[in-house]
Structure formats: C-alpha cells, structure tokens
Design goal:
This protein is α+β, with helices and mostly antiparallel strands and about 90 residues long. The chain has helices spanning about 10-25, 85-90; strands spanning about 35, 40-50, 50-55, 65-70, 75, 80-85. It has a 6-stranded mixed β-sheet with strand order 4-3-2-1-6-5, covered by helices on one side. The longest helix has 18 residues, at about 10-25. The chain is elongated. The termini are far apart.
C-alpha cells in the first residue's frame, strides 16, 4: 500500500451500502415486472413496504400478496426488478 492509499472503514462501507440501497429503492416503482435470476416472471410490484417489495395479488397463483426482501434484489431498471434467487427459492 502506498502512502496515498486509504483503507475503507466500516463506516465508509456502510455509507456506500446505504447509498446503493437508496438508489435501488428509487428505481423500484409500481407495476414493474419482478424477474428471478433466470429471467422468469415472479410477479409485479405493487409497492415498497419497508425493506420489502409487495407483489400484486393479480400476478400471484394463489391470489395473495407476496413479499420480496430488498436484500434479494440484484438490480432494477425501467422494465423490471431482477432478483438474485430462482423463483423456486423465492417461494420456499
């Protein structure tokens, strides 16, 4: 390590995590598709509820709301939210 290098502190890492989560939350809007790691449709965003995405009932096979933790979200864009797990893992 040279004299100009600085190690990231736990506080720095937490700040980066918080900013990344804030950015992700801003991208997740109503009616976006939710896709698993294989690109398969899991549901449709109803809205954010705390640290979870509430999915619409109309896209659910059992007619109930389901929730996806934000920690399972890999990324999001203007089309969909992309998860880091398979549909089967999400439903387990």
């Amino acid at each position: 390590m040279t004299g100009n290098d600085q190690a990231m502190t736990d506080s720095d890492l937490q700040t980066l995590d918080d900013k990344a989560m804030e950015s992700l939350r801003a991208q997740i809007t109503e009616h976006l598709q939710v896709r698993d790691i294989n690109g398969e449709h899991v549901g449709t965003v109803d809205h954010l509820e705390g640290d979870q995405i509430k999915l619409t009932r109309s896209g659910s096979p059992d007619g109930q709301h389901h929730y996806v933790p934000l920690t399972d979200v890999r990324s999001a864009d203007e089309v969909a939210v992309y998860l880091s797990k398979t549909r089967e893992e999400m439903m387990a």
